[in-house]
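User: two proteins, same treatment. go.

Assistant:
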Amino acid sequence: MKPRNTLLSVLFVTSALSTQVFAQNFDVVILNGRVMDPETGFDQVANVGINNGWITKITGETIEGAETIDATGHVVAPGFIDLEQHGLSPFGIKLNLRDGVTTQMDFEVGALNISEWYAERENNTQANFGTVVGQEFARMRVHDGLALDGPNVSMPYFFDYRIDAAEDGVDGWSVTRSTLDQMNEITATLDEGLREGALGVGSTIGYAREGITTYEMFEAQKIAAKYGRLTAAHHRFHPSASTPIETATGANELLTNAMVLGASLQLHHTNDYGWWEIEEKMQLARAQGHNVWSTWYPWTAGSGNYGASILAPDNWEDSMGYKYEETIFDPQLDRYVTKEEFLEFKDSEPGRTAIAFSPPREQWIKDWIKVPNFVVSGDGMPGLNEKGERLDWDSPFEDYAGHPRSAGSHAILLRLARENDVPLMFSLSQLSYWAAKQLGDAGIQAMDVRGRMQEGMIADITIFDPENVTENATYSKGKNGLPSTGIPYVLVHGTIVVSDSKVLKGVNPGEAIRYPVEEVGRFEPSNKEQWLRTFTIDTGGARPTLYDDILDDQSSLELPQSSEPVDYRVAKVDLTKAEPQDWFAQPNAMDDSELFLCRVHGVYEDKVTAQQDWAQALIARNSQASPYDPLSVTGTTGN
């Protein structure tokens, strides 16, 4: 029998070896940081152990690992999540990593050829990545005839495609209203992207407000809803302060569709006139169980291109009341432009970057940093220099010429929150948790394990100095792309990508955020017969149109005799110029899906003659029976 002290010595050595093995059982450890979890409210100085890309230990005990980060005096937070990053080139990704963004996705412009898009980036990207299928690209195929092949039909090549679309002098994707067949073709393209794993449907309807009909937009949201996926959109009237096209009107359209479909919705950059109304409705809708939310970025100016309709004089001057020489800044010229210069660039270089200031944001920003579920997304633009050339990974940050939101949208929020006494945990929710939570609720399972600092979560982690973190990018030339400081370490899936404030080249742990590919799509073409079968009763096949005989006899233009005024229209219509309306689509298209519920419009081979005859008969009839102008009828009961 061994002496007692010998046995204790053996037990001590065994225990020490066991402890040592346990202590070194981590790939990475983060020591002495203030660990903050927005979901649970956990906020303590602790040590974090990471294995195989996952957080496996959060403890006050001593731990060791193969790599060690000393986070003393720093916050250890969930990696920031950005849902509107358009600069997803190696340069743009690097710039966003310096701003603490571990998941960088484009939910606005999106992409086509989804399987190819993901394959191109797999094992080759520094941050987590994902995309929606883009409605604008689908419309470019149909209305501009662009092939749009390959893995890069997405940002940052987006403006090149817009230039190609405009070569014939018409931005078909923006201004052309779809016939029924065209609408079905567009929706089928969206369906194919969803089948291949896209996270939802992305829409730039705000740049195509004259081209995309309300029903086409409804169809886009409907196909996303068939997959249980979200729609994300820059809504139709953003920004506008004029009735009846106020900003909130565009939000209402999308919000109504989402609520009746029981679908998730994200509205992009709700940071202009009417934001308060939209956010009130968002909060009320969430309280009723709807998964809807908005994003914003903390800058006093927005960014787009000279060809954008929202910057045209009828909106920028007439609606918003702004002056070009006070609000439109050109980063390549490093100064504001006159109206004449603006119009010249609009015609000659419609894809050129313009920075548009919105003076009221100076005050609004201080409100936005306090709005629950208001998610921060940078809306970062492609990495270009002052000549419009693309920057690569090795390009100096000073060469970037564009909106500074590409570089500092997350650090600036942390600075603003610090200066305005906003609780840090609230800001972390705006930067990570609420995006992850809402995307998870939309069915994206990969986001259920992100946006949190908890054991069992993926180790996407941003470490920052809460007292000194700040943006450095400004609107001045040479400073547009200066990286944020005070964020010395960033981990993506447990791999250190930013170390001592330097992005490590060639380290590509970014994971694809997507749905599995499905074998069969879910698209069903819309048509009149399908609509009737679904939404009307069966009366033996009778067409619910007053003038069936007109279909067979185009010369029959007699109107029913009545002593009462004939109310046919909802709004004023010049019938001498109007053409038969496609049921789902535009007035100048004709197929077998006419607006059969409207007594004014029929189907004729000779559209112009028949419509003129019809209009004359209608005017004559109403002139006899009505004391008021028949072309300004309101309050109709049947259109």
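Protein 2:
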Amino acid sequence: MNRAPLWRAVAAFAVIAISAVLAFTMTPRLGLDLRGGTQLVFESKDSATVKADAAATDRALDVLRRRADALGVVDPTLVRSGEKRIIVELPGVLDPRQAAEVIGRTAQLAFHPVLGVAEAGDRDAVKDENGTPLKIGPAAITGDGVTGAAERSDPQRGPGWWVTVDFRDADAWQRLTGTAACEPEGDPKRRIAIVLDREVISSPQVDPSVPCRAGMPGGSADITGSFTYEDARELAVLIKGGALPVPLDLVEQRTVGPTLGAAAIEASAKAALVGLVLTAGFIILVYRISGLLATIALACYGLISYAALVAMGATFTLPGLAGFVLAIGMAIDANVLVFERAREEYGKAVGLRGALDRGFKNAWSAIADSNVTTLIAAGLLFWLASGPVKGFGVTLGVGVLASLVSAMLITRVLVQAAVGRISPRVSGLASQGAVRTWLAHRKPRLMRAGKLFLTVAGGLAVVALAGLVVRGLNVGVEFTGGRLVEFATSRPVPADVAGRAVAQAGFPAAVVQAADDGVTVRAAELGLAETARIEQALEPHGGEVTKRREEFIGPSLGEELRRNALIALGVAVAMQLVYLAFRFRWTFGAAAVLALLVDVAIVVGLFAWLGKPIDGVFVAAMLTIVGYSVNDKVVVFDRVRELWAARPKEPLATAVDGAIVQTLPRTVNTGLGALFILVALMAFGGDSLRDFAIALVAGIVTGTLSSAFVAGPAAVALGRFDRRPPVAPAKRKASPGRSGSGAVL
């Protein structure tokens, strides 16, 4: 007795049960673009005495962590990225100026004796808090000699705040104050200069009650000045945190308001729900009971994918949610492949159960090949992308693996359990379908017009790429460097009015875009203070103006991200070519990549003509298109190889025609499943998700058409350079009959 179905059922139940426990007992970790806050990315630089290596960056990370803790930030995240970069996430901190100034200051603290008032032109002079130039001696106490600091106030001492500092070496402080106390009262030499980052923050006189040479005992001192509470607290945080071992440059900064994050989560949930309902309705309409059971498996896929991400501790980002929603549409692909193959096998009079078994067996090759191509794209996103787009790569990769479990295990268990209890007609697998029946009757010979198809495809690619010359690419701040700020306004501001307001604020070259509920400003030379000035300039026109989102990318990082994006696309195409050449013959791989280049050219040209931004989310969409496009062509060429090997004396063009006709129902059904999800994203997502969906819709449509009208004719044309006879795909060895408790999953 074959117990494989029983063990599959046990495995499916175990996977679902474990996923349910993880999903309902673990809390997801939301990225800052969903919960609100500020992300800072610092890059360590060499100093005169210290090289900015991994060890120095780790020491700087410890200092930043102490500063974040002292600021009272709830659940801050600080990690080193690479050898020289530190990523700091501060949930709830919406003032990037405060975060950057407090977290990233060098904070070199020192206490110096004052040697007198400096002469005019003295380059070594430092100005005190009143602007008087002072000549100071070598540091008597550095930041390493400080053990703690805290802000203080006392109504009995009068209004205001000061900072109390505790010293590790009480004798050093006593000697420094004892020497100063020997000078006459009012003499500049009686002062102690407290210097932070080469700037005198306070230079108090030693109190007249302190005796000469005796100094101030106790190992503590008060730094006084015209401090507000925020000033005193900031200074205490810097002193207590210690000095950074190496200077840090702010190379990236993102700030997102909590309302925008909540809206993104709600929009993604709506898109997922609507897309799932539309996809479920479609697959049930086409495949009836089998489609209904596949829909149940699809819901299990969502549970498995979510549980895996939570268990991994993955951070959910806005592009990551888009990847999670998109993977629902892609997860239907394996089910469609199996069901369409089962329909073909049922026509050979093998019975419903036999057709289903053969459908799972014969569809596995195409399913495995197509999923490998998507995993390549997901891996490149995780390896070369930065920020939230990494989350898209993670969710896409996890979604692909979860979809395999959903289709090849859960769907198989459910459908096989129902096969003996329902009629073939109700199952949805006995009917060949209207599209397949029509194609089988007409038997179109598409390859006869192969040259025409290639000419039309080339013309479309040229027209699309002409947009690069005529309109140019709207390269986002992520790749050019600069700052992008999105303001929410209580009333609409016309684009020309917003542009004049920003120009009057001092930024005539800034790129200004206006919508019904806000204004977006992008400029290369735009600092935090200038952002506040623009906000004030918009208030007379937009009513209540609040900062909804802010991104800053340093020029060096922008260049690096731009280079990584080009590398990712180039490596993706190269790896697909190598993989296809390995799995098939090189002519099939070259034809698939040629069609892929047409797909990419059309999508890039479309964004150029429409003026849509080219940013990290667009690169994520392009890599997804690469995976999807090659996925579709793998299915076609897998069938070409099979048909050509069965009839090796027939021309390759005949096998290509037959493969296109036989796989077209699968292609149409899979494409529609993904399009339902993307239409939902376009309807409910924000601007970035809408552009993401537009790119994918264009990529899926062109990828589907290019499989038949570019890849097929190109494979026939290139076939003249490879005269080898067709080789049948490797057959799996038949397993000997089993009895007893043996099982194969």
